[in-house]
Specification:
The structure is a homodimer. By secondary structure, the first copy, chain A, is mostly beta strands. Chain A has 4 helices and 18 strands.
Chain lengths: 317, 317
């Protein structure tokens, strides 16, 4: 036999699971009790309104020689950085630069290999080279927020807003994006205001939550993540590639709105402000697939999957 | 500038941090107050007794064409599985088999690509093909346990024992290994007793804590993890490679005790039952390196680094 583990995306392969969505009239009061569902059940029962289409004006395409990484930008959380990254992309700042760092169980980072050379470094034109930090933003009570039932070790509240993992502190009136797998941020030096988006990184390992509120996160890789996570690791201690030939070249980074026709990726994401998404969280807190012997009864923020449907696009892999 | 993120191993590269270990006579009572330390401080001040040498009888070498993965086995938690994996290695069960699955943000898995073919599959000789599950074991109060101060979302207690991430439930009198990055387990089918070690997997993403108490973990990759985490991902939904040429061949898996002379890797690990390790945990709960603007004040089990010193070995990479 080939033994399998039910996977992070709820696809169980050789595991059997019921696709039947059952509503039982279970009590004398006629209350409707839903049978516990798997994530596959939840997705099979989802309706078109449970899904949203990526906004092309808030989406980046990172084009590598072997495919496209699609990054959704989080304008509600880091508006200046998001605007600046788009401005950098539109002045072709990133085109021809490279992936310069890959540190196991931590981050992959890209930008200008010559950033330390005043002569050779890529010049920023109309965009900004650095920006004031946007580590947190004012907690917007009008922003729909789906809290996790099991709390969080690092923040008073954790959950999802606009498709992103988010922590909130009602006492300080702040909210911030969380460093889960696939989240993209703006590297910086020691000064908090030394980032701005000319160097970006993506989380490729256990959520480095100690970075929360220490770096400005700008979005999340929603497709093509494996093009960044499966790269050869750079040398110790920090995974910077020592030789130019180790670096993966960046063909271009474009704002999706500037890409038209069949080159545009058509991608849908499950909304995170719906009963369907709350059912999905529950389906992951207690796994009902036959393979599972024990149900955890809990889930942490960075273990909740954010389902994606790729409808069309040039870089399927 | 090249912007850097202080890394998961506490090495900050361009970040400055103090290497001075300072004990201050700080109060009128003459109490000694230690200045907060970085992990680099803690390691610099560690003594030989803070380190332990891998027991070769409890260590596996997974030999790939491009290097060696060193796996420490956890006999105190899964004695039968550990004995069986060693028996499988010693009868050369794994030699010439392959890595058959790599699923992004989840697991890399190796074993027999022909496991589903009664004719072609590799025969188990004196070892066992399957074993009763060892998902948990009796909580041994004599086993030194360093609890985490911040608790755990999934278990009543979490901490470290014998160098492994461990959860405990005093009520049920059970303890179990936890699915952190690098942990190695024995794949199984739907029956809980269908594993045994002929297929093994390693965690390469966010800790899949829903697998805790659902699979028998047998150890942890302590060196060479990047040989398993940076592999090309297999196809959806579960990352199994579809074509034989996609699979990475396994040259051999050996018990370190059977490897002598310069081929033996000399590896030391920081003990997890010492004041030094407790100081390390604290140095990671509150990061004192200059780069950090905000100290999390918390840490989760799978974010605590387990430092390794590689003294000698044939497969440095």
């Amino acid at each position: 036999m080939t033994q399998a583990l039910c996977d992070a995306a709820g696809m169980c392969g050789r595991c059997n699971f019921s696709l039947v969505f059952v509503v039982l009239a279970a009590t004398g009061f006629g209350a409707e009790v839903q049978k516990p569902l798997t994530m596959a059940d939840v997705l099979a029962a989802s309706k078109p309104a449970d899904w949203r289409t990526l906004d092309p004006e808030n989406t980046l395409y990172l084009e590598l020689t072997n495919g496209r990484v699609v990054i959704e930008l989080a304008a509600a959380f880091a508006s200046n950085h998001v605007a600046n990254v788009k401005a950098l992309a539109r002045e072709h700042y990133f085109d021809g630069l490279a992936i310069i760092r890959c540190q196991d169980n931590y981050v992959t980072q890209w930008g200008d290999p010559e950033a330390d050379s005043p002569d050779k470094k890529r010049k920023v034109q109309k965009a900004k080279a650095t920006l004031p930090a946007e580590f947190m933003t004012a907690l917007d009570p009008k922003l729909p927020f789906t809290p996790l039932p099991d709390g969080d070790l690092y923040a008073p509240e954790a959950g999802f807003a606009q498709g992103f993992p988010v922590a909130r502190d009602p006492k300080s009136g702040k909210m911030w994006l969380v460093h889960c797998y696939g989240m993209v941020g703006a590297g910086r030096d020691n000064s908090p205001d030394s980032g701005g988006g000319t160097e970006l990184y993506v989380v490729i390992g256990q959520a480095p939550r100690h970075l929360d509120r220490n770096v400005t996160l700008v979005g999340r890789a929603v497709h093509g993540m494996e093009l960044l996570s499966a790269l050869p690791r750079g040398g110790p201690p920090m995974g910077f590639y020592e030789k130019p030939e180790q670096r993966t070249p960046i063909k271009t980074i474009r704002v999706a709105a500037d890409v038209t026709g069949p080159e545009r990726s058509q991608i849908q994401l499950l909304r995170t402000d719906t009963p369907t998404f709350r059912a999905l969280i529950e389906s992951r807190r207690n796994r009902r697939e036959e393979w599972f012997q024990f149900q955890a009864g809990h889930i942490d923020l960075c273990n909740v999957p954010l389902p994606v449907k790729v409808l069309t696009g040039p870089a399927e892999h």
